[in-house]
Structures are given as structure tokens and as C-alpha cells.
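The protein record passed on below.

***
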Amino acid sequence: MGKTIRELAEELNLSKSGIRKYLSASFRARYTVKNAHRIMINDAGVKAIKEMITHKGAHSERTPGTHSVHTKNVSVQSNNVLIEQLREKDKQIEHLQKLLDQSQQLQLMAEQKLKRLEKPQNEPENDSSSSDNQIHEKATETPKDDKNSPEKPRSFWQRFFGTEK
């Protein structure tokens, strides 16, 4: 008695399309019989398909073990690739942080140099303000002397700039 393609596929842990690969025109002529819209493969045909599968070794099994092992290998490989990419990105981030720190240090040094360069310019301004203070002191002293003298009092601007007649 023969088997249907479905029965043979379940027995060999293959898909129905995997079994149909082996059903060439010459194979069908020798080993199959069509019975009520079903293709029945006789015992000699079943034996021939089993031999073809074992000799070729290339078949699409439906076994969960083989498929899961292949899937696990693929997932492990993809995980390893992702881990390597993460390590590379970590290195890039670390390098960028170093560059950012260096940039901040250089900016701080530049600001300090600018402050040092501005200090000598500010000091002469301090000297001019101290000379202004001296002028103000002189201006306040001269009117006291003028009060004692019988001459005409000096104007505000003359007192302010300390000019004498």
C-alpha cells in the first residue's frame, strides 16, 4: 500500500513542497498512482525518496530541532555583531567626550589670556582716574585760598580745573 504526499512529508519531517521536489515526471510515471484527486506514492517510491534524501542530504526539514538550532545560531551571530557595534559606538562616544573636554579647556585658557591682556589696559584707566581725583582735590583747595584774598572770586570752571589767572 502507498502513502500520500502529506503522510510521507509527516513521516520524513519535510514539507509537502519538499516532497514534491523529488516528484519528477519520470518518478511519477513509475511510482505514483492518482486516486480520488490524491497522489499515492507506492512503497518502492517511498523507499526511493528516502534514499534520495539521505544521499543528497539537502532537504527542507520541518523539525523544530534543526530549525531552532539554525535560528539560534543566526540570533547568536546577530547578537555578537550588535555587541561589537555597541563597543565601537562606546569607543566613539568616549573619544568625543575627550575632544569636548579638550575644547572646553582651550576655551577657558583663551578666556584667561584675554583677561590678562585686558588688565594692563584697565590699569592706565585707573591712573587717569587717580589723576582726576588729584585734580578734584586741587580744585577744592584753591577756593579756600581765594576766600582769603580780596580779589574777584573765580568761576566754577576755573575752580574745577584748577586754573589760575
In short: Helices lie at 5-12, 16-21, 25-31, 43-56, 64-148, 156-161. The radius of gyration is 52 Å. The beta strands are 3-4, 32-35, 38-41.
